[in-house]
Specification:
Elements: H1 2-22, H2 26-29, E1 30-31, E2 34-35, H3 40-54, E3 62-63, E4 72-73, H4 79-94, H5 100-104, H6 107-110, H7 112-125, H8 130-142, H9 144-150, H10 158-175, H11 181-194, H12 206-218, H13 228-243, H14 247-250, H15 262-279, H16 284-298, H17 302-313, H18 328-333, H19 337-345, H20 352-365, H21 369-387, H22 392-408, H23 411-414, H24 418-432, H25 434-438, H26 451-469, E5 473-476, H27 481-487, E6 491-492, H28 501-513, H29 518-524, E7 528-534, E8 539-542, E9 545-548, H30 551-555, H31 560-566, E10 575-584, E11 590-599
Parallel strand pairs: 5-6, 5-7
Antiparallel strand pairs: 1-2, 3-4, 7-11, 8-9, 10-11
Helix pairs in contact: 1-7, 1-8, 1-9, 3-4, 3-27, 7-8, 7-10, 8-22, 8-24, 10-11, 10-21, 10-22, 11-13, 12-15, 12-21, 13-15, 15-16, 20-21, 20-22, 21-22
Length: 604
């Protein structure tokens, strides 16, 4: 009863603190009576969710208004946007006075207690003692990564990816518990399968399961009650059921980049390996047979594995130009610096390499299947956290749980030195969170958390009206593709979907158009109707502040079309100025930084 009371109190308190901090960026999301998404990808999620809930077309998996003229499949799976659309429909029926976006921007915030409960449940299952569980929840509530994942308007699916990382880890620990049986195995398989509803890349959650099972198999230390066969069947069936409504699968695709036949096949491969380890004990002969089977099964997915590796390393197509793919070390050595980086991760970031080593040692020495599983999951998640900023949700739970678990497993620190250990951990935690508490958690943000969007928002309002009267193709940098798609009925050539060859070709096509003169653009892109011209590479970090470079510096960094539009005394022939935005550079001089233009001509 005492443990339950501590858990409940800690969960409730941490959830309330986290919710309060998640609402800090409200001024960047709520503009008068309008509610905006927070973050670039959130704009496309919001548009697809709203259309799925209230438009005649319902949920579209192929979008003809992106990557024109061909259009393209939406790389995200159908499930996340579909179910949020159903939530909006319920609110539209129960509370019709609320705007749909007014409901949508708060959904990541109200999901916070669920992820906090999963983190607490994971810590409890690991046997982490009460005072450490309280510290884990406090750290979760104060972590800027938690705020970014669940902040108001953060409709992107990353907070739900965190859910499935925590859920799959907990379910796998239950499978390895003494006397777990078939039910736990089935639930774990279903959890791994349902993860594909949120993101096609979450098939990687099967890797720590396979790795742990393989180590146990090599040691001939499989728990007697471990029902790998039921887990394998549940994983295969649930993945197939999740994938069957996917448009790319129905179209016959086999690709990592969309939810397609690739994912049921990967689940089947995992299932085959699990069943083989379930039925055959380790020997040199069975090891060779298992490895040979794995290699044969991997042949059809070799291309997808390579693409996934490129995605994880940020070397896929134009991904290296996305801020999300920079690693924490890259942030430290880049514009963020050490102080800016630890404001986001806290000083706990410095523990991550130590924790990876500690968990590798634990995996090598422990005889507990659950401890082995947690160690493997921790190494996997923390390694991904160190690879890219956007992958922080894979490692967040382990960054918080692993240090306390390792302390918890030291008998002397859990016995006579328990009070001293708790006091020391409290002091370290307080110091670790000093940078976030003094900066990142309470900073003010531009609209949608993006100063580039903040600058072009007036132009998007004008473009919205123009597209209602005469929809067409907008020539714009890929960064504004999702913004244009959210606000208007116009089409875009490129956006921040950057997984396939087509996506890369569209980014290069737009970049090429901006190197042309206005007259050449009219000849090379006769179907283009509008130009959204925004200064490229116009901002720099100065003492932690984002400031506009000097205009003399900016001009040399921009292609011909932008110079012709934004630095010219008058617009070129056959181009109408719809609206422009001015700003002052760091030297106090005022000039255009963005403009919306309409192309004229008989073909338009």
């Amino acid at each position: 009863m005492k443990d339950a009371a501590i858990n409940c109190s800690a969960w409730l308190g941490a959830s309330l603190v986290a919710i309060a901090l998640a609402l800090v960026p409200s001024d960047s999301v709520i503009v008068g009576t309008e509610y905006l998404p927070f973050g670039n990808d959130s704009f496309y999620h919001a548009r697809r969710i709203l259309d799925a809930a209230f438009s005649e077309n319902g949920l579209y998996q192929f979008d003809p208004r992106i990557h024109v003229a061909e259009g393209s499949w939406v790389t995200w799976p159908w499930g996340y946007d579909f179910f949020l659309a159903r939530v909006l429909e319920v609110f539209a029926w129960a509370a019709p006075m609320l705007q749909p976006m007014q409901v949508l921007v708060y959904l990541p915030v109200v999901w916070l207690p669920i992820n906090a409960a999963l983190l607490l449940t994971l810590a409890t299952t690991l046997g982490i003692r009460a005072e450490f569980r309280v510290m884990i929840l406090i750290a979760f509530s104060l972590m800027p990564l938690t705020q970014k994942l669940h902040g108001i308007g953060a409709i992107d699916h990353h907070y739900m990816e965190l859910t499935f990382v925590l859920l799959s880890t907990w379910l796998f620990l239950r499978v390895l518990a003494p006397g777990a049986g078939r039910h736990a195995a089935i639930m774990c398989g279903i959890g791994l399968g349902l993860a594909h509803l949120v993101h096609h890349g979450l098939f990687v959650l099967q890797i720590p399961v396979l790795a742990t099972t393989f180590i146990l198999w090599l040691r001939s230390a499989m728990p007697k009650d471990l029902d790998l066969q039921s887990l394998a069947i549940a994983l295969t069936v649930s993945t197939l059921l999740v994938a069957l409504p996917s448009g790319p699968l129905l179209d016959g695709h086999f690709s990592f980049s969309t939810l397609s036949w690739f994912h049921p096949y990967v689940a089947l491969c995992s299932a085959v390996l699990l069943v083989l380890m379930h039925h055959y004990q380790y020997s040199r002969r069975t090891l060779y047979a298992l490895l040979a089977t794995g290699l044969v099964l991997a042949v059809p997915v070799a291309g997808g594995i390579l693409m996934g590796a490129q995605f994880l390393t940020g070397s896929t197509l134009a991904l290296d130009t996305i801020n999300e793919v920079v690693s924490p070390l890259g942030m430290i050595s880049g514009d963020w610096g050490l102080s800016g980086t630890v404001q986001i991760y806290s000083w706990l970031l410095l523990l991550a390499p130590i924790l990876i080593v500690g968990c590798l040692w634990l995996a090598a020495t422990t005889r507990s299947p659950q401890a082995l599983a947690f160690a493997v999951c921790s190494v996997f998640g923390l390694s991904l956290l160190m690879m890219q900023f956007r992958l922080n949700y894979f490692g967040l739970g382990f960054l918080l749980c692993a240090p306390f678990y390792l302390l918890n497993e030291q008998p002397r620190l859990s016995g006579r030195y328990r009070a001293v250990t708790a006091l020391g951990a409290t002091v370290v935690l307080a110091l670790a969170f000093q940078p976030p508490l003094s900066g990142a958690l309470f900073r003010s943000y531009p609209l949608s958390g993006d100063h580039l969007y903040h600058n072009v928002r007036p132009l998007l309002a004008s473009l919205q009206q123009a597209c209602l009267e005469a929809p067409g193709i907008v020539v714009a940098n890929r960064h504004y593709g999702h913004h244009i798609r959210f606000h208007t009925e116009c089409s875009v050539i490129a956006n921040n979907f950057l997984l396939t060859r087509q996506h890369a070709e569209k980014v290069m096509a737009v970049d090429l158009l901006f190197t042309l003169s206005p007259q050449e653009l009219a000849d090379r892109a006769p179907d283009a109707r509008y130009i959204l011209a925004v200064l490229n590479d116009a901002y720099e970090q100065n003492e932690g502040m984002t400031v506009l470079r000097s205009f003399d510096n900016i001009a040399a960094r921009n292609p011909q079309l932008i110079r012709s539009l934004l630095f010219a005394d008058a617009p070129p022939q056959d181009i109408e100025v719809l609206q422009t935005v001015q700003a002052e550079d760091r030297d106090g001089r005022s000039a255009l930084i963005a403009g919306l233009y309409r192309l004229h001509g008989e073909q338009r």
